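hi! just following up on the protien thing from before. the input was this:
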Amino acid sequence: METKERLARLRAEMEAAGAAGCLIPSSDPHASEYLPDHWAARRYFSGFTGSVGTLAVTMNGAALWVDGRYFVQAEHQLEGSGIELQRMGLPGVPTVEEYLCRALCKGDVLAVDGAVTPTAQVRRLQKALEKQGVQVQDIDLPGRCWPDRPPMPATPCFVLGRELAGLTASEKLAKLREALDKEKADGMLLGRLDSVAWLLNLRAYDLDCTPFALAWCWVDRGRAVVFLDSSRADETVRGYLAENSVELQEYDQVEEFLAHVQAPLVLRAEPESLNWRFWRLLETNSAVTVQEGADPVQELKAVKNETEIACIRASHKKDGVAMVRFERELERRRAAGETLYESDVENILIECRRKGEGYLEESFSAIAACGANAAMMHYHAEPGACSPLADHGFLLVDCGGQYMDGTTDITRTYALGELTDAEKRMYTLVLKGHIDLAMLVFPMGSTGGNLDLAARRPLWAEGLDYRCGTGHGVGFVGGVHETPPRLNQADRKAITPGMVVTDEPGYYETDVMGIRIENELICVSRMRTEYGEFCGFEPLTRCPIGREAILPDMLTREELAWLNAYHQTVLEDLSPLLDEEERAWLADRCRPIEG
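and the predicted 3d structure came back as:
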Protein backbone atom coordinates (compact mmCIF):
# COMPACT_ATOMS: atom_id res chain seq x y z
CA MET A 1 0.00 0.00 0.00
CA GLU A 2 2.85 2.39 0.83
CA THR A 3 4.35 1.91 -2.64
CA LYS A 4 0.98 2.49 -4.29
CA GLU A 5 0.52 5.73 -2.34
CA ARG A 6 3.98 6.96 -3.35
CA LEU A 7 3.30 6.18 -6.99
CA ALA A 8 -0.02 8.04 -6.74
CA ARG A 9 1.80 11.15 -5.46
CA LEU A 10 4.34 10.82 -8.27
CA ARG A 11 1.57 10.58 -10.89
CA ALA A 12 -0.04 13.71 -9.47
CA GLU A 13 3.24 15.57 -9.99
CA MET A 14 3.54 14.09 -13.48
CA GLU A 15 0.12 15.44 -14.36
CA ALA A 16 0.95 18.88 -12.94
CA ALA A 17 4.18 19.01 -14.97
CA GLY A 18 2.55 17.82 -18.18
CA ALA A 19 4.54 14.59 -18.24
CA ALA A 20 2.99 11.31 -19.34
CA GLY A 21 5.91 9.24 -18.08
CA CYS A 22 8.73 9.34 -15.57
CA LEU A 23 11.94 7.31 -15.58
CA ILE A 24 13.84 6.76 -12.32
CA PRO A 25 17.25 5.09 -12.65
CA SER A 26 19.42 3.73 -9.85
CA SER A 27 21.84 6.60 -9.95
CA ASP A 28 23.13 9.77 -8.33
CA PRO A 29 24.92 12.72 -10.00
CA HIS A 30 28.13 10.66 -10.00
CA ALA A 31 26.81 7.40 -11.53
CA SER A 32 27.56 5.56 -8.27
CA GLU A 33 26.67 1.93 -7.70
CA TYR A 34 25.78 2.30 -4.03
CA LEU A 35 23.75 5.46 -3.53
CA PRO A 36 23.52 7.88 -0.63
CA ASP A 37 19.97 7.71 0.72
CA HIS A 38 19.40 11.23 -0.60
CA TRP A 39 19.36 9.86 -4.16
CA ALA A 40 17.71 6.46 -3.58
CA ALA A 41 14.56 7.51 -5.44
CA ARG A 42 14.09 4.23 -7.30
CA ARG A 43 14.12 2.35 -3.99
CA TYR A 44 11.72 4.86 -2.39
CA PHE A 45 9.12 4.76 -5.15
CA SER A 46 9.30 1.04 -6.01
CA GLY A 47 9.98 -0.65 -2.67
CA PHE A 48 12.71 -2.75 -4.34
CA THR A 49 15.89 -2.55 -2.27
CA GLY A 50 18.42 -4.14 -4.64
CA SER A 51 21.36 -2.00 -5.72
CA VAL A 52 20.46 -1.91 -9.44
CA GLY A 53 17.15 -1.45 -11.21
CA THR A 54 15.25 1.00 -13.42
CA LEU A 55 11.71 2.15 -12.70
CA ALA A 56 9.38 3.49 -15.41
CA VAL A 57 6.06 5.04 -14.38
CA THR A 58 3.25 6.13 -16.70
CA MET A 59 -0.22 7.36 -15.84
CA ASN A 60 -1.62 3.86 -16.29
CA GLY A 61 1.21 1.52 -15.34
CA ALA A 62 4.66 0.98 -13.91
CA ALA A 63 7.50 -1.48 -14.52
CA LEU A 64 10.84 -2.29 -12.94
CA TRP A 65 13.81 -3.78 -14.81
CA VAL A 66 16.31 -5.94 -12.91
CA ASP A 67 19.01 -8.39 -13.97
CA GLY A 68 19.33 -12.06 -13.05
CA ARG A 69 20.86 -11.38 -9.64
CA TYR A 70 17.58 -9.89 -8.43
CA PHE A 71 14.79 -11.87 -10.11
CA VAL A 72 13.69 -13.66 -6.94
CA GLN A 73 14.16 -10.69 -4.60
CA ALA A 74 12.29 -8.29 -6.87
CA GLU A 75 9.40 -10.72 -7.33
CA HIS A 76 8.89 -10.83 -3.56
CA GLN A 77 9.32 -7.10 -2.96
CA LEU A 78 7.07 -5.95 -5.81
CA GLU A 79 4.18 -8.21 -4.83
CA GLY A 80 0.99 -6.18 -4.53
CA SER A 81 2.66 -2.93 -5.61
CA GLY A 82 1.14 -2.74 -9.06
CA ILE A 83 4.64 -2.59 -10.56
CA GLU A 84 5.30 -5.12 -13.32
CA LEU A 85 8.61 -6.99 -12.99
CA GLN A 86 10.72 -7.05 -16.15
CA ARG A 87 13.37 -9.78 -16.00
CA MET A 88 16.16 -8.41 -18.16
CA GLY A 89 17.73 -10.75 -20.70
CA LEU A 90 14.91 -13.29 -20.81
CA PRO A 91 13.06 -13.98 -24.08
CA GLY A 92 10.10 -11.73 -24.70
CA VAL A 93 11.05 -9.14 -22.07
CA PRO A 94 10.99 -5.62 -23.56
CA THR A 95 13.78 -3.14 -22.95
CA VAL A 96 13.00 0.06 -21.07
CA GLU A 97 12.93 1.90 -24.40
CA GLU A 98 10.58 -0.62 -26.03
CA TYR A 99 8.22 -0.46 -23.07
CA LEU A 100 8.07 3.35 -23.15
CA CYS A 101 7.56 3.39 -26.92
CA ARG A 102 4.46 1.26 -26.43
CA ALA A 103 3.20 3.21 -23.41
CA LEU A 104 3.70 6.79 -24.65
CA CYS A 105 2.11 8.63 -27.59
CA LYS A 106 3.01 11.43 -29.95
CA GLY A 107 3.30 14.74 -28.11
CA ASP A 108 3.91 13.11 -24.72
CA VAL A 109 6.74 14.11 -22.41
CA LEU A 110 8.97 11.71 -20.53
CA ALA A 111 10.47 13.30 -17.39
CA VAL A 112 13.93 12.38 -16.16
CA ASP A 113 16.04 14.04 -13.49
CA GLY A 114 18.94 15.24 -15.63
CA ALA A 115 21.16 15.68 -12.58
CA VAL A 116 21.20 11.93 -11.87
CA THR A 117 20.58 10.37 -15.29
CA PRO A 118 23.73 9.55 -17.29
CA THR A 119 23.91 11.14 -20.73
CA ALA A 120 24.24 7.77 -22.48
CA GLN A 121 20.96 6.61 -20.96
CA VAL A 122 19.14 9.77 -22.09
CA ARG A 123 20.50 9.33 -25.60
CA ARG A 124 19.11 5.80 -25.79
CA LEU A 125 15.74 7.11 -24.69
CA GLN A 126 15.80 9.98 -27.18
CA LYS A 127 16.77 7.75 -30.08
CA ALA A 128 13.91 5.36 -29.38
CA LEU A 129 11.25 7.92 -28.46
CA GLU A 130 11.83 10.53 -31.16
CA LYS A 131 10.27 8.10 -33.66
CA GLN A 132 7.13 8.24 -31.51
CA GLY A 133 7.22 12.04 -31.26
CA VAL A 134 7.91 11.83 -27.51
CA GLN A 135 10.14 14.44 -25.85
CA VAL A 136 12.57 13.74 -23.01
CA GLN A 137 12.76 16.65 -20.55
CA ASP A 138 14.88 17.36 -17.49
CA ILE A 139 12.33 17.50 -14.65
CA ASP A 140 13.07 16.28 -11.14
CA LEU A 141 9.62 14.89 -10.33
CA PRO A 142 10.70 12.52 -7.51
CA GLY A 143 12.20 15.48 -5.63
CA ARG A 144 8.81 17.22 -5.66
CA CYS A 145 6.91 14.45 -3.89
CA TRP A 146 9.46 12.93 -1.54
CA PRO A 147 8.63 14.17 1.97
CA ASP A 148 11.37 13.82 4.58
CA ARG A 149 13.94 13.16 1.88
CA PRO A 150 17.26 12.27 3.57
CA PRO A 151 19.85 15.05 3.48
CA MET A 152 23.04 14.87 1.44
CA PRO A 153 25.84 13.20 3.40
CA ALA A 154 28.77 15.28 4.58
CA THR A 155 31.19 13.11 6.54
CA PRO A 156 34.75 14.20 7.47
CA CYS A 157 37.39 13.60 4.80
CA PHE A 158 40.75 11.96 5.30
CA VAL A 159 43.85 11.35 3.17
CA LEU A 160 45.56 8.10 2.21
CA GLY A 161 49.28 8.77 2.47
CA ARG A 162 51.86 7.70 -0.07
CA GLU A 163 52.86 4.78 2.20
CA LEU A 164 49.42 3.29 1.40
CA ALA A 165 48.51 4.71 -2.02
CA GLY A 166 52.00 4.43 -3.51
CA LEU A 167 51.69 7.78 -5.32
CA THR A 168 50.81 11.31 -4.25
CA ALA A 169 47.92 13.24 -5.73
CA SER A 170 50.32 15.39 -7.78
CA GLU A 171 51.96 12.26 -9.23
CA LYS A 172 48.56 10.84 -10.15
CA LEU A 173 47.52 14.15 -11.69
CA ALA A 174 50.63 13.98 -13.87
CA LYS A 175 49.59 10.50 -15.03
CA LEU A 176 46.08 11.73 -15.84
CA ARG A 177 47.36 14.76 -17.77
CA GLU A 178 49.66 12.47 -19.73
CA ALA A 179 46.72 10.21 -20.59
CA LEU A 180 44.60 13.20 -21.62
CA ASP A 181 47.44 14.58 -23.73
CA LYS A 182 47.64 11.29 -25.63
CA GLU A 183 43.95 11.73 -26.46
CA LYS A 184 44.61 15.37 -27.52
CA ALA A 185 42.33 16.60 -24.75
CA ASP A 186 43.01 19.66 -22.59
CA GLY A 187 41.16 18.47 -19.53
CA MET A 188 38.00 16.97 -18.06
CA LEU A 189 35.54 17.08 -15.21
CA LEU A 190 35.85 13.92 -13.13
CA GLY A 191 32.46 12.91 -11.83
CA ARG A 192 32.88 9.30 -10.81
CA LEU A 193 33.52 9.25 -7.07
CA ASP A 194 35.97 6.37 -7.37
CA SER A 195 37.98 8.38 -9.91
CA VAL A 196 38.11 11.43 -7.64
CA ALA A 197 39.01 9.29 -4.62
CA TRP A 198 41.86 7.54 -6.43
CA LEU A 199 43.20 10.68 -8.09
CA LEU A 200 43.35 12.81 -4.94
CA ASN A 201 43.90 10.03 -2.35
CA LEU A 202 40.85 11.47 -0.64
CA ARG A 203 38.37 9.36 1.32
CA ALA A 204 35.23 9.86 3.46
CA TYR A 205 32.11 7.92 4.46
CA ASP A 206 29.43 9.48 2.27
CA LEU A 207 28.31 6.16 0.77
CA ASP A 208 27.46 3.09 2.80
CA CYS A 209 30.33 0.61 2.71
CA THR A 210 32.30 2.68 0.19
CA PRO A 211 34.75 5.26 1.60
CA PHE A 212 34.18 8.07 -0.89
CA ALA A 213 33.48 11.78 -0.55
CA LEU A 214 30.86 13.53 -2.67
CA ALA A 215 33.10 15.61 -4.89
CA TRP A 216 33.87 16.72 -8.44
CA CYS A 217 37.35 17.33 -9.77
CA TRP A 218 38.24 19.62 -12.65
CA VAL A 219 41.60 18.91 -14.28
CA ASP A 220 43.17 20.82 -17.16
CA ARG A 221 46.76 21.30 -18.28
CA GLY A 222 47.65 23.74 -15.51
CA ARG A 223 44.89 23.59 -12.93
CA ALA A 224 43.15 21.12 -10.65
CA VAL A 225 40.03 22.03 -8.65
CA VAL A 226 38.11 19.79 -6.26
CA PHE A 227 34.49 20.77 -5.58
CA LEU A 228 33.76 19.60 -2.06
CA ASP A 229 31.80 20.77 0.96
CA SER A 230 34.70 22.63 2.57
CA SER A 231 33.34 22.19 6.09
CA ARG A 232 34.44 18.56 5.83
CA ALA A 233 38.06 19.33 5.03
CA ASP A 234 40.19 19.87 8.14
CA GLU A 235 43.62 21.48 8.13
CA THR A 236 45.33 18.20 7.25
CA VAL A 237 43.14 17.71 4.17
CA ARG A 238 43.44 21.36 3.12
CA GLY A 239 47.19 21.22 3.55
CA TYR A 240 47.48 18.05 1.50
CA LEU A 241 45.42 19.53 -1.34
CA ALA A 242 47.49 22.71 -1.33
CA GLU A 243 50.78 20.74 -1.33
CA ASN A 244 49.57 18.92 -4.41
CA SER A 245 48.39 22.10 -6.19
CA VAL A 246 44.69 21.28 -5.90
CA GLU A 247 42.29 24.18 -5.36
CA LEU A 248 39.26 23.72 -3.09
CA GLN A 249 35.84 25.08 -4.05
CA GLU A 250 32.37 24.29 -2.71
CA TYR A 251 30.50 21.25 -4.04
CA ASP A 252 27.55 23.28 -5.29
CA GLN A 253 29.76 25.71 -7.26
CA VAL A 254 30.61 23.21 -10.00
CA GLU A 255 27.60 24.03 -12.17
CA GLU A 256 28.46 27.75 -12.24
CA PHE A 257 32.12 26.88 -12.88
CA LEU A 258 31.21 24.83 -15.96
CA ALA A 259 28.91 27.52 -17.30
CA HIS A 260 31.69 30.13 -17.16
CA VAL A 261 34.62 28.27 -18.69
CA GLN A 262 36.02 30.84 -21.13
CA ALA A 263 39.37 29.59 -22.49
CA PRO A 264 38.94 27.38 -25.57
CA LEU A 265 39.28 23.81 -24.33
CA VAL A 266 38.86 20.29 -25.64
CA LEU A 267 37.25 18.49 -22.72
CA ARG A 268 37.10 14.73 -22.34
CA ALA A 269 33.65 13.55 -21.23
CA GLU A 270 32.24 10.09 -20.69
CA PRO A 271 28.54 9.83 -21.59
CA GLU A 272 28.13 6.70 -19.44
CA SER A 273 28.99 8.61 -16.27
CA LEU A 274 28.56 12.36 -16.79
CA ASN A 275 24.99 13.37 -16.01
CA TRP A 276 22.81 14.89 -18.71
CA ARG A 277 22.47 18.26 -17.01
CA PHE A 278 26.23 18.85 -16.87
CA TRP A 279 26.73 17.45 -20.36
CA ARG A 280 24.33 20.04 -21.78
CA LEU A 281 26.16 22.77 -19.86
CA LEU A 282 29.39 21.80 -21.61
CA GLU A 283 27.74 21.41 -25.01
CA THR A 284 26.17 24.85 -24.86
CA ASN A 285 29.41 26.58 -23.79
CA SER A 286 30.93 27.99 -26.98
CA ALA A 287 34.44 27.83 -25.48
CA VAL A 288 34.23 24.07 -24.98
CA THR A 289 34.66 21.26 -27.49
CA VAL A 290 33.38 18.02 -25.99
CA GLN A 291 35.49 14.97 -26.79
CA GLU A 292 33.56 11.80 -26.05
CA GLY A 293 35.57 9.01 -24.50
CA ALA A 294 36.22 6.87 -21.46
CA ASP A 295 37.38 8.32 -18.15
CA PRO A 296 41.16 7.58 -18.20
CA VAL A 297 41.30 7.22 -14.41
CA GLN A 298 39.24 4.04 -14.59
CA GLU A 299 42.03 2.33 -16.53
CA LEU A 300 44.83 3.91 -14.46
CA LYS A 301 43.48 2.75 -11.11
CA ALA A 302 42.62 -0.74 -12.33
CA VAL A 303 46.31 -1.72 -12.43
CA LYS A 304 47.49 -1.64 -8.83
CA ASN A 305 50.99 -0.36 -8.09
CA GLU A 306 53.50 -2.31 -5.98
CA THR A 307 52.65 -0.44 -2.79
CA GLU A 308 48.93 -1.02 -3.25
CA ILE A 309 49.49 -4.73 -3.96
CA ALA A 310 51.59 -5.15 -0.79
CA CYS A 311 48.89 -3.39 1.22
CA ILE A 312 46.13 -5.48 -0.36
CA ARG A 313 47.94 -8.68 0.59
CA ALA A 314 48.22 -7.45 4.18
CA SER A 315 44.52 -6.59 4.32
CA HIS A 316 43.58 -10.07 3.14
CA LYS A 317 45.58 -11.67 5.93
CA LYS A 318 43.69 -9.59 8.48
CA ASP A 319 40.44 -10.47 6.76
CA GLY A 320 41.40 -14.15 6.80
CA VAL A 321 41.93 -13.98 10.55
CA ALA A 322 38.48 -12.43 10.92
CA MET A 323 36.93 -15.22 8.84
CA VAL A 324 38.65 -17.91 10.93
CA ARG A 325 37.33 -16.34 14.12
CA PHE A 326 33.90 -15.94 12.58
CA GLU A 327 33.62 -19.61 11.65
CA ARG A 328 34.89 -20.74 15.06
CA GLU A 329 32.38 -18.50 16.83
CA LEU A 330 29.58 -19.78 14.60
CA GLU A 331 30.54 -23.37 15.40
CA ARG A 332 30.78 -22.64 19.14
CA ARG A 333 27.36 -21.05 19.38
CA ARG A 334 25.66 -23.71 17.32
CA ALA A 335 27.31 -26.47 19.36
CA ALA A 336 25.98 -24.80 22.52
CA GLY A 337 22.46 -25.21 21.14
CA GLU A 338 21.86 -21.51 20.44
CA THR A 339 19.25 -20.73 17.81
CA LEU A 340 20.92 -18.44 15.32
CA TYR A 341 19.26 -16.45 12.55
CA GLU A 342 20.80 -15.19 9.34
CA SER A 343 20.94 -11.68 10.80
CA ASP A 344 22.92 -13.04 13.78
CA VAL A 345 25.49 -14.40 11.34
CA GLU A 346 25.96 -10.95 9.83
CA ASN A 347 26.44 -9.42 13.29
CA ILE A 348 29.09 -12.01 14.17
CA LEU A 349 30.92 -11.18 10.95
CA ILE A 350 30.96 -7.47 11.73
CA GLU A 351 32.23 -8.03 15.28
CA CYS A 352 35.04 -10.31 14.10
CA ARG A 353 36.19 -7.80 11.47
CA ARG A 354 36.04 -4.79 13.77
CA LYS A 355 38.95 -6.19 15.75
CA GLY A 356 41.26 -6.05 12.73
CA GLU A 357 43.90 -3.33 12.62
CA GLY A 358 42.90 -0.46 10.33
CA TYR A 359 39.34 -1.74 9.85
CA LEU A 360 36.98 0.98 8.59
CA GLU A 361 33.64 -0.64 7.72
CA GLU A 362 32.01 -3.39 5.67
CA SER A 363 32.77 -3.24 1.95
CA PHE A 364 29.12 -4.08 1.27
CA SER A 365 26.14 -5.19 3.28
CA ALA A 366 26.92 -8.80 4.17
CA ILE A 367 24.83 -11.62 2.80
CA ALA A 368 24.12 -14.55 5.13
CA ALA A 369 21.55 -16.79 3.51
CA CYS A 370 20.52 -20.38 4.06
CA GLY A 371 18.25 -22.68 2.10
CA ALA A 372 16.01 -20.97 -0.44
CA ASN A 373 17.19 -17.49 0.57
CA ALA A 374 20.64 -18.24 -0.83
CA ALA A 375 19.10 -18.57 -4.30
CA MET A 376 18.69 -14.77 -4.20
CA MET A 377 22.18 -13.57 -5.10
CA HIS A 378 21.86 -10.25 -3.27
CA TYR A 379 19.59 -11.30 -0.43
CA HIS A 380 19.91 -9.37 2.82
CA ALA A 381 18.61 -10.72 6.12
CA GLU A 382 16.37 -8.40 8.12
CA PRO A 383 16.17 -9.00 11.90
CA GLY A 384 12.79 -10.45 12.79
CA ALA A 385 12.06 -11.38 9.18
CA CYS A 386 14.77 -13.87 8.27
CA SER A 387 15.40 -17.57 8.60
CA PRO A 388 16.98 -19.54 11.43
CA LEU A 389 19.97 -21.71 10.60
CA ALA A 390 18.80 -25.27 10.03
CA ASP A 391 20.76 -28.45 10.78
CA HIS A 392 20.93 -29.37 7.11
CA GLY A 393 21.73 -27.78 3.77
CA PHE A 394 23.98 -24.80 3.16
CA LEU A 395 24.71 -21.39 4.63
CA LEU A 396 26.06 -18.93 2.04
CA VAL A 397 28.11 -16.08 3.46
CA ASP A 398 29.21 -13.25 1.14
CA CYS A 399 30.98 -10.40 2.91
CA GLY A 400 33.95 -8.08 2.88
CA GLY A 401 35.76 -5.34 4.71
CA GLN A 402 37.21 -1.91 4.10
CA TYR A 403 40.61 -1.46 5.71
CA MET A 404 43.05 1.42 5.57
CA ASP A 405 45.20 -0.82 3.37
CA GLY A 406 42.70 -2.60 1.15
CA THR A 407 39.21 -3.74 0.24
CA THR A 408 38.13 -7.38 0.55
CA ASP A 409 35.33 -9.48 -0.90
CA ILE A 410 34.88 -13.16 -0.06
CA THR A 411 32.16 -15.80 -0.27
CA ARG A 412 32.11 -19.17 1.45
CA THR A 413 29.32 -21.74 1.46
CA TYR A 414 29.20 -23.78 4.67
CA ALA A 415 27.52 -27.13 5.34
CA LEU A 416 25.04 -26.76 8.20
CA GLY A 417 24.69 -30.50 8.67
CA GLU A 418 24.21 -33.63 6.66
CA LEU A 419 24.15 -32.97 2.93
CA THR A 420 22.53 -34.91 0.12
CA ASP A 421 24.61 -36.35 -2.70
CA ALA A 422 22.98 -33.82 -5.05
CA GLU A 423 24.04 -30.92 -2.81
CA LYS A 424 27.61 -32.19 -2.65
CA ARG A 425 27.69 -32.67 -6.40
CA MET A 426 26.55 -29.11 -7.08
CA TYR A 427 29.03 -27.70 -4.56
CA THR A 428 31.88 -29.62 -6.17
CA LEU A 429 30.90 -28.44 -9.67
CA VAL A 430 31.05 -24.83 -8.44
CA LEU A 431 34.41 -25.52 -6.77
CA LYS A 432 35.78 -27.02 -10.01
CA GLY A 433 34.81 -23.87 -11.90
CA HIS A 434 36.43 -21.70 -9.22
CA ILE A 435 39.67 -23.67 -9.35
CA ASP A 436 39.75 -23.91 -13.15
CA LEU A 437 39.67 -20.13 -13.46
CA ALA A 438 42.27 -19.67 -10.71
CA MET A 439 44.64 -22.13 -12.48
CA LEU A 440 44.18 -20.65 -15.93
CA VAL A 441 47.21 -19.50 -17.94
CA PHE A 442 46.28 -17.20 -20.82
CA PRO A 443 47.97 -14.98 -23.43
CA MET A 444 48.33 -11.27 -22.75
CA GLY A 445 45.37 -9.45 -24.24
CA SER A 446 42.79 -12.06 -23.26
CA THR A 447 39.54 -10.38 -22.29
CA GLY A 448 37.16 -10.83 -19.41
CA GLY A 449 34.78 -12.46 -21.87
CA ASN A 450 37.45 -15.02 -22.80
CA LEU A 451 38.26 -15.93 -19.20
CA ASP A 452 34.66 -16.09 -17.97
CA LEU A 453 34.24 -19.34 -19.90
CA ALA A 454 36.77 -21.24 -17.77
CA ALA A 455 34.65 -20.96 -14.61
CA ARG A 456 31.45 -22.03 -16.37
CA ARG A 457 32.80 -25.14 -18.09
CA PRO A 458 31.96 -27.67 -15.32
CA LEU A 459 28.40 -26.36 -14.98
CA TRP A 460 27.87 -26.09 -18.73
CA ALA A 461 28.86 -29.74 -19.06
CA GLU A 462 25.78 -30.53 -16.94
CA GLY A 463 23.50 -28.14 -18.82
CA LEU A 464 23.63 -25.61 -15.96
CA ASP A 465 24.70 -21.97 -15.64
CA TYR A 466 24.39 -18.84 -13.46
CA ARG A 467 22.74 -15.55 -14.50
CA CYS A 468 25.55 -13.14 -13.69
CA GLY A 469 29.18 -12.51 -14.45
CA THR A 470 31.92 -14.63 -12.92
CA GLY A 471 33.90 -11.76 -11.41
CA HIS A 472 34.54 -8.07 -11.04
CA GLY A 473 37.39 -5.78 -10.15
CA VAL A 474 37.91 -4.58 -6.60
CA GLY A 475 39.06 -1.07 -5.73
CA PHE A 476 41.84 -0.05 -3.35
CA VAL A 477 40.14 1.30 -0.24
CA GLY A 478 37.35 1.95 -2.69
CA GLY A 479 34.42 0.34 -4.43
CA VAL A 480 34.09 -3.39 -3.92
CA HIS A 481 32.79 -3.58 -7.50
CA GLU A 482 35.17 -1.93 -9.95
CA THR A 483 35.50 -2.06 -13.73
CA PRO A 484 37.76 -2.76 -15.38
CA PRO A 485 38.43 -5.63 -14.94
CA ARG A 486 35.27 -7.65 -15.33
CA LEU A 487 34.66 -11.32 -16.03
CA ASN A 488 31.52 -11.79 -18.06
CA GLN A 489 30.80 -13.04 -21.53
CA ALA A 490 30.17 -9.57 -22.99
CA ASP A 491 33.38 -7.96 -21.71
CA ARG A 492 36.00 -7.04 -24.31
CA LYS A 493 38.68 -5.43 -22.13
CA ALA A 494 41.98 -7.20 -21.52
CA ILE A 495 42.90 -8.58 -18.10
CA THR A 496 46.47 -7.45 -17.41
CA PRO A 497 49.06 -7.91 -14.62
CA GLY A 498 48.29 -5.83 -11.55
CA MET A 499 44.51 -6.09 -11.92
CA VAL A 500 42.51 -7.56 -9.04
CA VAL A 501 39.41 -9.56 -9.92
CA THR A 502 37.02 -11.85 -8.09
CA ASP A 503 36.53 -15.51 -8.99
CA GLU A 504 32.97 -16.38 -7.94
CA PRO A 505 31.06 -18.95 -9.95
CA GLY A 506 27.87 -20.19 -8.34
CA TYR A 507 24.75 -22.30 -8.60
CA TYR A 508 21.30 -20.93 -7.73
CA GLU A 509 18.17 -23.06 -7.69
CA THR A 510 15.08 -20.96 -7.01
CA ASP A 511 13.35 -21.80 -3.70
CA VAL A 512 15.91 -24.55 -3.03
CA MET A 513 19.52 -23.41 -2.50
CA GLY A 514 22.40 -21.19 -3.51
CA ILE A 515 26.12 -21.99 -3.65
CA ARG A 516 28.99 -19.58 -4.30
CA ILE A 517 32.75 -19.76 -3.68
CA GLU A 518 34.66 -16.52 -4.09
CA ASN A 519 38.30 -15.48 -3.82
CA GLU A 520 40.00 -12.33 -4.99
CA LEU A 521 42.77 -12.99 -7.51
CA ILE A 522 45.56 -10.80 -8.81
CA CYS A 523 46.69 -11.12 -12.41
CA VAL A 524 50.43 -11.79 -12.73
CA SER A 525 52.85 -12.41 -15.57
CA ARG A 526 53.67 -16.14 -15.88
CA MET A 527 56.08 -16.51 -18.80
CA ARG A 528 57.24 -15.12 -22.11
CA THR A 529 57.69 -17.46 -25.07
CA GLU A 530 57.97 -17.18 -28.83
CA TYR A 531 54.18 -16.79 -28.78
CA GLY A 532 54.26 -13.77 -26.51
CA GLU A 533 53.60 -13.06 -22.83
CA PHE A 534 51.33 -15.33 -20.82
CA CYS A 535 49.50 -14.38 -17.63
CA GLY A 536 47.85 -16.18 -14.76
CA PHE A 537 46.35 -15.56 -11.33
CA GLU A 538 47.45 -15.71 -7.71
CA PRO A 539 44.82 -15.88 -4.94
CA LEU A 540 44.79 -12.93 -2.55
CA THR A 541 42.06 -14.25 -0.26
CA ARG A 542 43.27 -16.18 2.76
CA CYS A 543 40.50 -18.41 4.07
CA PRO A 544 39.93 -22.18 3.95
CA ILE A 545 37.33 -23.50 1.53
CA GLY A 546 34.77 -25.76 3.21
CA ARG A 547 35.67 -29.45 2.89
CA GLU A 548 32.48 -31.13 4.06
CA ALA A 549 30.68 -30.79 0.73
CA ILE A 550 33.58 -31.72 -1.56
CA LEU A 551 33.43 -34.95 -3.55
CA PRO A 552 37.17 -35.50 -4.13
CA ASP A 553 36.62 -38.05 -6.89
CA MET A 554 35.06 -35.27 -9.03
CA LEU A 555 38.26 -33.20 -8.90
CA THR A 556 41.05 -33.74 -11.38
CA ARG A 557 44.56 -34.34 -10.08
CA GLU A 558 45.48 -30.74 -11.00
CA GLU A 559 42.42 -29.28 -9.28
CA LEU A 560 43.11 -31.24 -6.12
CA ALA A 561 46.76 -30.16 -6.13
CA TRP A 562 45.71 -26.52 -6.49
CA LEU A 563 43.27 -26.80 -3.57
CA ASN A 564 45.82 -28.44 -1.27
CA ALA A 565 48.48 -25.88 -2.21
CA TYR A 566 46.03 -23.03 -1.58
CA HIS A 567 45.18 -24.39 1.86
CA GLN A 568 48.87 -24.73 2.70
CA THR A 569 49.39 -21.07 1.81
CA VAL A 570 46.41 -20.05 3.96
CA LEU A 571 47.84 -22.02 6.89
CA GLU A 572 51.32 -20.55 6.53
CA ASP A 573 50.13 -16.94 6.18
CA LEU A 574 47.51 -16.91 8.94
CA SER A 575 49.14 -19.10 11.60
CA PRO A 576 51.50 -16.37 12.91
CA LEU A 577 48.46 -14.13 13.49
CA LEU A 578 46.42 -16.70 15.47
CA ASP A 579 46.57 -18.11 18.98
CA GLU A 580 47.35 -21.78 19.64
CA GLU A 581 43.75 -23.03 19.58
CA GLU A 582 42.99 -21.08 16.42
CA ARG A 583 46.10 -22.46 14.71
CA ALA A 584 45.08 -26.02 15.57
CA TRP A 585 41.58 -25.41 14.21
CA LEU A 586 42.97 -23.91 10.99
CA ALA A 587 45.46 -26.75 10.54
CA ASP A 588 42.55 -29.20 10.62
CA ARG A 589 40.60 -27.18 8.03
CA CYS A 590 43.67 -26.95 5.79
CA ARG A 591 44.87 -30.55 5.97
CA PRO A 592 45.42 -32.13 2.53
CA ILE A 593 42.48 -33.80 0.81
CA GLU A 594 43.27 -37.19 -0.67
CA GLY A 595 42.02 -37.94 -4.16
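The CA atoms of residues 142 and 286 lie 32 Å apart.
The chain is about 35% helix and 20% strand.
cheers
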